[in-house]
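With this grant's support, we have settled on a layout for protein records. A representative record follows, to show the layout.
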Amino acid sequence: MLSRTLDAQLENPSGLGLYGAFFGRFIESRPGASRYEWGVMAQASQMLDPKHLELFGQGQYIRFRRESLPGGAELDVWAVTGGMNYYFQGHSAKLTLDFSWFPGGAPLGADSLGILADPSNNEFLLRLQFELLI
């Protein structure tokens, strides 16, 4: 497997942050059988309080090839997320609250994130997370 990432980030003194990324992976599962999967992500954020409160929005698109999926489907996966971060002590102690929407569902589950494997229905995810760096 060969993976690649190309990303760019911009932050300015007024608290605006912009981030974009392209992800790709080339997989050869057996001789003569290979596939390329890719995705993009864009995020914008704005600090409302210079040291503590940040709002953000994010969009993601992933193109899965049929060999990766149960039943041989080929799917485009979209995810839209919005939320906020509250920094108690910079990135050392941070609370995140976000809401994600998967308009076409998710072809693969991620149990640890609460994402169900259901590519036929909309899926919504509300997450509250506290990070502590020790």
Q: What stands out?
A: The chain has a mean pLDDT of 85. Strands lie at 2-11, 16-30, 33-47, 53-64, 75-87, 93-102, 123-132. The chain has one domain: 2-132. Residues 2-132 form one domain.
